[in-house]
Specification:
Number of strands: 0
Radius of gyration: 20 Å
Largest sheet: none
Shape: globular
Helix content: over 70%
Number of domains: 1
Order of helices and strands: HHHHHHHHHHHH
Structural class: mainly alpha
Distance between the termini: 17 Å
Length: 318
């Protein structure tokens, strides 16, 4: 049986999905439902399936990256076990700061007995790898897009800088130490963070960094490419690399707002950036709604489906 906080988080996710759908329907209706409906009619079940498949490429690529990281830490988990943990964590994506995804560490602890202090670097390096992967693909897309995307270059540099700090033990230990000296509180928390940061050196090796970044880049490009296909099906005339850049820039912007899953910020960025490219609202609104359903909410749905299996299997472990 799920604990009350986890059960509540999943219910909150379902409620947020309902509010998201109602909100998008309301906005579409206010801007002209008939024209939007005509564009939506171009996206059939086959196209919808392709979008989901491309999103699945992203989740599986990042799940394989998670497997690389668990093996680097010599955590005694199996291949399917790692994927079960990783995908199940998506159920709690909509928690503030995605802190709910830390449940993956609890599952590892209950499955293998590995202490949380030893597995804590997994979360940090996984987030950092996502930042670097998105930033690299965004940089490539911006470079290959005629005229570029205003504001993307500084975002790319900031994302890479943050990720570098998060994967360099000495820099991170220094930052944590400065934080402790500044606040002068929570000694156990800062002590645990320092110990976790010192373990990051195992990830700073080419045989781990290179395949991890490649998997992340392939995964995020797949979702950006899905956005490009969707825009084409809806009738928007937009370059592939521009579509990929807009999607990834919006994902970074949504994440920077601190809202669970980037809700609100990512949608506003997608609509705004598409408008700057001359894409009318009757196309940008349904495009935004569909791509968020087939990426963010599809991931949460997968997580909700895997979640109970994790809870059932880990209870059988010693």
């Amino acid at each position: 049986m799920k604990s009350k906080p986890e059960h509540r988080n999943i219910l909150i996710g379902i409620v947020l999905l309902g509010l998201f759908i109602l909100g998008m329907i309301g906005v579409i209706a206010a801007t002209g439902w008939e024209e939007t409906r005509l564009h939506l009619a171009r996206v059939g079940w086959a196209q919808f399936g392709i979008l989901l498949l491309l999103s699945l490429v992203n989740y599986l690529a990042r799940g394989l990256r998670w497997r690389i990281y668990t093996q680097a830490l010599k955590i005694p988990t199996g291949f399917l076990q790692d994927f079960r943990h990783y995908l199940g964590g998506f159920a709690l994506t909509i928690t503030p700061g995605r802190i709910g995804e830390l449940i993956r560490l609890r599952w590892i602890n209950r499955d293998t007995g590995t202490p949380l202090e030893r597995t804590a670097p997994l979360v940090l390096v996984d987030r950092a790898a996502d930042l670097v992967s998105v930033a690299l693909v965004l940089a490539l897309a911006t470079a290959l897009t005629a005229g570029g995307l205003a504001g993307a270059v500084p975002v790319v540099f900031i994302a890479i800088a943050v990720a570098i700090m998060a994967t360099q033990p000495r820099l991170l230990v220094w930052a944590i130490t400065r934080g402790w000296k500044t606040l002068g509180r929570f000694p156990k928390l800062f002590g645990g963070l320092r110990r976790a940061a010192k373990q990051l050196h195992v990830f700073a090796k080419a045989p781990i960094i290179l395949p991890a970044l490649l998997l992340g880049a392939v995964g995020w490009f797949a979702e950006g490419y899905a956005f490009y296909l969707l825009l084409g099906w809806l009738g928007a005339d937009i370059n592939m690399w521009m579509a990929v850049a807009i999607f990834l820039f919006a994902m970074l912007g949504g994440g920077a707002t601190g809202m669970p899953g980037g809700l609100g910020g990512a949608e506003a960025a997608l609509i705004g950036l598409l408008s700057l490219q001359g894409v009318p609202l009757e196309i940008s609104l349904p495009a935004t709604a569909i791509i968020r359903l087939t990426t963010l909410w599809f991931a949460i749905l997968i997580g909700i489906g895997v979640f109970p299996f994790n809870e059932r299997f880990v209870k059988r472990a010693p």
